[in-house]
Amino acid sequence: MRILAAGDHFVRPELLRAALDRELAHTGRESPDFAELTLPWPHEPFGPVAGVREASGTEDQLIDALSGASVCVTQMAPFTERVFASSPELRMVAVSRGGPVNVDLDAATRHGVAVSFAPGRNAPAAAEFAVGLMLAAMRRINSSDADLKRGVWRGDLYAYEEGGIELSGATVGLIGYGAIGRIVARVLLAFGAEVLVADPYTDPAAAVADGVRPVGVDDLLRRSSVVSLHARLTPETRHLLDARRLALLPHGAVLVNSARGGLLDHAPLPELLRSGRLGALALDVYDVEPIPDDWALRDVPNVITTPHLAGATRETAHRAASITAAEVGRFVRGEALAHPANPDVLLAGRP
C-alpha cells in the first residue's frame, strides 16, 4: 500500500507520517510505502483551485505525487474531478480539518473514493482564542497596548463612561453550539456569565443540562451584551447576522467572529461602530482573505483583527494528524469510518 502524506507548513508531512506509523504499526500488514508532498500554505494563502475551496498547491503537483497511491492524508491538497480521474488507484482521502472543503465530494463519490475529515481537531485552540478575543474587546486590551507603545497613557479609560464590561454577570450569546461552542460555554460559565445558545441542531434538554439556555437567534441577539459566532458556513448561514439582525443587539454590545467570515454581513459594521451602536468588534475571519488594502473597517474605532489564527496551535496540528491517521487505520482494517464525508461510497475490502 502506498500512502501520500500531502502536508503543508502547519500540519507537516512528518506529523502525518508519524501518526500513521503509530496507527498502522499493529495492523498485521506490511508497512506502507510513504510518499511526501509539502504544500505552500500558510506561506502562500489558500484559495479556490479548479472548483474546490480553500486549497493549496496545484492539480498537476498533486497528480504527480499521487502516482501509485491508494490513500492520501492531507489538509489542503486540491482534490478535484481532474485529480480523481488521473489517480485510478486512489481509494481514500483523509482530510485533517473540520470539513473537506478542498475536496469535490461528488467527484470522489463518482470515482469510488472514500473521504473522511477531522471534526473537533482545533476545538480547544479555537475556543481559547474566542474567549481571548472577547476579553480583549471588552477591556480594550489591544487599543490600550497600542496607545501605550506610542507614548499615550490612557488614564481617561478609568472614567465611568469609558469603562469596560466584565464577563462575570454578563449575558453572552453563542451562535453555534458544536465542539468549539461547548468549550467556550464552559469557560464563560466558570467566569460567572449567563450563556445563551442558538443552534438548531442542539438538543435543548442537553443544553440545559450543560448550564446554558437554548434560544432563537433573534432572542439571543436582543438579550446578549456579548455575542460570539461558532456556526458552520452553509448557504443557510451565510450572512446569518445581516443588517436587520445586527440592529437587534443592545447598544454598545461586543461582537466576536472567529468562525467564518461569511456568517457576518460586513457592510453595516463601519457605521454601527462609528455610532457606538456596536461597542466593539473582534474578527479573526473575514469575507475576503487576506483583507484588501481598501478594507472598510481598517480605520474604524474599536475593531480588533487577527489573521485567521484561532486554530493555530501545535496541539491542533498533532491532533489533526492523529484523528486523520485513526481514520486511515479504520479504512485499512475494513471498519466503518468515524467521520465519513461521503458515506454512500462502499468500502469493499482493504486497499
Walk me through what this model shows.
This protein has 351 residues and is α/β, with parallel strands linked by helices. It has two domains: 2-121 and 313-332, NAD(P)-binding Rossmann-like Domain (Rossmann fold); 123-305, Rossmann fold (3-Layer(aba) Sandwich), CATH 3.40.50.720. Helices cover 32% and strands 17% of the residues. It has twelve helices and 14 strands. The protein has a seven-stranded parallel sheet with strand order 10-9-8-11-12-13-14, with helices on both faces. Strands 2-1-5-6-7 form a five-stranded parallel sheet. The chain is elongated, with a radius of gyration of 22 Å. The termini are close together. The model is unreliable at 347-351 (pLDDT under 50).
From the structure above, extract its key features.
5-stranded parallel beta sheet; disordered C terminus; 12 helices; 7-stranded parallel beta sheet; Rossmann fold; alpha/beta; about 350 residues
Instruction: Kindly name the structural category.
Output: alpha/beta
Helix content: 25-40%
Uncertain runs are: 347-351
- By CATH's scheme, which homologous superfamily of the largest domain applies? NAD(P)-binding Rossmann-like Domain
Q: Describe the biggest sheet?
A: 7 strands, parallel
Q: What's the number of domains?
A: 2
User: First CA to last CA: what distance?
Assistant: 7 Å
Number of strands: 14
Portion in beta strands? 15-25%
Radius of gyration, taken over Cα atoms and rounded to an integer in Å: 22 Å
- CATH topology value of the largest domain: Rossmann fold
Order of helix and strand elements from N to C terminus: EHEEEHEHEHEHHEHEHEHEHEHEEH
